[in-house]
Amino acid sequence: MLNFHSGVRFQQGRGLGSIFGSIFRGLKPLAKMGLAAGKRFIKSDFAKSIGNTALDIGKTAATNMAVDLLEGKKLSDSAQEQLDDAKSKIASKLKGGCAKKRKKTKKTGILDYEDDDKPCSKKSKAKKYSLLD
Question: Which of 98, 89, 92, 87 has its CA nearest to residue 124?
Fold first, then answer.
C-alpha cells in the first residue's frame, strides 16, 4: 500500500480563485487597450509640450520662491502665489491658443504675422485617442 495525501473527500468548486480569475480575465483586454492608448498619448507632441511647459513653470516658480525668501516674505505666501500663477499658465496651455494668422502684405509680398486679441473662429482638429483602436 502506498502512502499519499488524497485531499478532502468532498471538495467542490475552485473557491475564490475562480471568481477573481474570471474577473481578471475579463478586465485584462481593457487594461491592455488603456495602456496602449496611454503610451500613444505620452509620445504625442501635446503631452511633450505640456511637460515642457510644466518644467519651465517649475523652474521659474522655484527661482521666484528663492528670491521671495531672500527678501523676507513667508514661504507659504510665496508658494501659494506661485501655485496660482502655475495653475493659470498650465490651464491656458491646455486650452490652447490660436495660431497667429499669416497675412501677406501688399507692398512687399512678404508673409507677416498678425496679432489678434479675438478668440479663434474655428477650432483646430485635435487627434482623438480611442481605447478601441
Answer: 98
